Amino acid sequence: MENKQYKLAAWPAIVRAKCPRCRRGNLFANSMYGFKGQVMNTTCSHCGLTFEKEPGYFYVAMFVSYAFNVAEMVTIAVAISVLTGSKNPWLYVSIILAVAVILSPFNFRYSRVILLHWLTPGLHYRPELSQDKIN
Ligand SMILES: [Zn+2]
Fold it and tell me: Rounded to the nearest whole angstrom, what is the distance from the C-alpha of residue 124 to the centroid of ligand 1?
């Protein structure tokens, strides 16, 4: 029987929040918009990588989340200005805050995904670990 190698490209692995090392296991145990809040797996179910490599490591993700928030808020402010031409600051504040609340689960999840996929030194995709366990 031929040994099929499972390869997931980098972008689909990021969008689906997969393990940065094997791109098979899920980083999160549940969906982004649920009532229970997001639960992150401690280790990869496929390759066993410990996602939080030291206590408090995900505090670094706050900087990524901050960058996401700034980009979203500037984009929305420009969009409001272009679409409505309004000079009423309460319109800007209310819409920007509403969108920030709506997007906060997205920012929480993808700041950690970006941290693990792009900003963690020494953590790279290893295709040999993405193979099926049973050959
Ligand atoms: Zn893995």
Answer: 11
Reported as a single tens digit per residue, the pLDDT across 34-72 is: 888 899 999 999 999 999 999 999 999 999 999 999 999
Distance, CA 24 to ligand 1 centroid (Å)? 6
Q: Tell me the average pLDDT across 87-112.
A: 96
Reduce the DSSP state of residue 88 to 3 states and report it: coil
Supply the mean pLDDT for the chain: 91
List residues, by chain if needed, whose CB lies under 5 Å from ion ligand 1.
19, 21-22, 25, 44, 46-47, 49
* Cα of 16 from ligand 1 centre, angstroms: 13
For 51, the 3-state DSSP assignment is: coil
Residue with tokens 């020494």: 122
- Residue-level pLDDT at 23: 93
How far is the CA of 111 from the CAs of 45, 62, 73, 79, 82, in angstroms? Answer: 21, 7, 16, 23, 28
Token pair 């700041």 is found at 111
Residue 36 CA to ligand 1 centre (angstroms): 24
